[in-house]
Here is the input.
Amino acid sequence: MAVNGVDTFPSGPPDSFEHSGYYILAKQLEALMSKVCQVTGKRPVTGNNVSHSMRKTRRRFLPNLHTHRFWVESENRFVKLRVSTKGMRIIDKNGIDAVLVDIRKRGDAI
Here is the structure.
């Protein structure tokens, strides 16, 4: 794009992997990569960092998520889920088939 005969982005669009556009790209990727457990629905919560002098600064507490492949015997295939450690315990307790029924009932595609 040229303004008054000067190319505003001589090295490419601002969302490329340059220093100026890297922040924009990182924010777009963060929006795509949801930090939500597919089994329990755990998501980030907000709170405070508290220093020794009791000064508080805002922060996010992220769930302990893992991308894990589970073998589904009834479908004869692997299913990849993004689950928290509590979600893994629920799958161990109830079985992957029962958990998949609940996930699909909520409308999530797997």
Summary: The longest strand covers residues 65-72. The domain at 35-110 is CATH 2.30.170.40 (Ribosomal Protein L24e; Chain: T;).
